Amino acid sequence: MAAAQTNGSAPTTTSRDPNFYAGYSRFEIELEFVQSLSNPQYLNYLASQKYFESEEFVAYLEYLQYWREPEYLKYLQYPGPTLKVLELLQEERFRREILIPSVAEAMVAEGFEAATKGLTG
Fold this sequence. Notes:
By secondary structure, the chain is mainly alpha-helical. It has helices at residues 26-36, 40-48, 55-63, 70-73, 79-88, 92-97, 101-116, and strands at residues 20-21, 24-25. Helix 2 (40-48) packs antiparallel against helix 7.
């Protein structure tokens, strides 16, 4: 259920509204989180904190696959890298290997190279 609005102002919520946390909607929180997954250094951090060893967290990553749907995909700032990482995170091998700093560094280098391809003569 949507929060009440008055005179075009921002939505107001109550502390009991299950769709909001600290003033942010579940959609906003999940959008920010799923986009942060396209950062290899953040993935390395999550791996170092053993998040990828948690069955519950892995199940949450599977749940996030809904971002592939066109109604949600349009909100992703970098859909290509974000969706690729969501796909890779479904693989146990990738979840183990991203713990290796050189793997994260290679992903950063490859991403930078792909982003700048064609900009230099």
